[in-house]
Amino acid sequence: MNTVLQFEYCVPESQKLADLYGVQHDLDEAIRYCDLHIEIDPTEPGISIEEILRREQTRHALCRAALFSYGRCFGGGVRVGLGLDLINRLPVELKDRHTQVKNLRDKWVAHSVNHFDDIRVRIDARLNSAGDIEVHGVSLASQLVGTFLRDWMIAYRALFVEVRALVQHELSVESLVLSNKVKEMPLQELMLLERVDGVPLTRKSWDPGQNRGRFKGN
Predict the structure, then answer these.
(1) How far apart are the first and last CA of the chain?
(2) How far apart are CA 148 and CA 101, in angstroms?
(3) CA–CA separation, 168 vs 192, rounded Å?
(4) pLDDT bracket for residue 131 (50, 70, 90)
(5) Nearest to 70 by CA among 105, 94, 19
(6) How far apart are CA 12 and CA 15, in angstroms?
(7) What is the pTM of this model?
């Protein structure tokens, strides 16, 4: 009877594989958020005003979540994000769509630096019967974009699916390279690694400000 063994192998050589897996997870989430957004119909006949508003708010949250998850795939820091070399392998139409989505994530979801969140302050006055202008104070006028049309989300989903396919290919190649490498590892070196078969992962910290760090050499 064979016994399954597992050894911890979180080293710099395996960091790329872990990063690609994390990116794939974010793309899976982005696609799922698109699917949920597309399924929700706020124009369904017979639903109440409250239900219409609830569905619109849900679509709003899903739209932002999809853009945020996709944007995480290209961030820096602890995890190395996807590079332009991968984006350049997309068809021209999808490259342009990537630029649009990236700008939406960076300048609408993460920061309010565009006319999607347009708020104006205005002076309220009244022209009386004598022809005099009476100033009453100030008021606000706003135009806030909450979500996008269903067709837009379908188009964004197509981009996410195509990028995920490229990532999955890189993931399989990197997994094969690493698997071949560890198969050549001397048994003495393997036995020095920590045994983790049957050991569940444990969270080292619940502090969101504490970076988990990159893999380090032994």
Answers:
(1) 32
(2) 12
(3) 31
(4) confident
(5) 105
(6) 5
(7) 0.83
